[in-house]
């Protein structure tokens, strides 16, 4: 889900430090969320202006800031840590040529469903939203002890509505015989021959059944049938099982980003 970002400079109007507000996350959690953009600020600017910028943020409620930067940008990490930012996760960007996808099958797995992929229908919305709200536990918002898990779950539910509004595509994974919904796969086109897999989830009742692997194979087959030759995705190293699955399919890491959070109580 790619939400529009409006970047702002500090000190206003055109200072060297760059940040943006996150209104959708602020609405979910009930207090201000911001994102710092170190890639648009020099190290010297961060060292000079980060502390006063943090001091300028709203104080009437809790306040949260996200920062992402290259895993090798140690100098910026030191500046962030000095002002109270804490490490949350490493996000890997991975890419695959769909013609080279390695099929793993489901050897050694139990309770495997024969799955089929079909396009999303409006009647699927409630079921997909339920799965989105209940299937994630490794995201950066889930593992941060300063944030309520309920808010993190709600954010994934909202993700579906936002994705549909922005024109992303959703494929439904269901049991080919019973038609029971097993999961979903969400993606957007990034070029004429490439897609970005923005979200995929399996109903918690079917985790470790082999459904996730079968769904991904079928979904990427469908993307290739639609004329796409490449696929990319982002995955947290917190989620070891998903990383292992995507690696076994042939995905290779092309970039790595460190994620840091900053939180202030009211």
Structural class, from secondary structure content? alpha+beta
Write the H/E string, N to C. EEHEHEHEEHHHEEEHEHE
Main sheet: which strands, in order across?
1-2-3-4-11-5-10-9-8-7-6
Output the number of helix runs: 8
Notes on the structure:
- The protein is an alpha+beta fold.
- The chain has two domains: 7-90, no CATH class; 94-256, 3-Layer(aba) Sandwich (Aminopeptidase).
- The protein has helices at 23-29, 43-56, 74-82, 125-134, 140-143, 149-165, 211-225, 240-249; strands spanning 7-10, 17-21, 33-36, 63-70, 86-97, 115-119, 169-175, 181-191, 194-202, 230-236, 252-264.
- α1 (23-29) packs antiparallel against α6 (149-165).
- The radius of gyration is 20 Å and the shape is globular.
- The relative contact order is 0.21.
- Mean pLDDT is 92; it is low at 107-111.
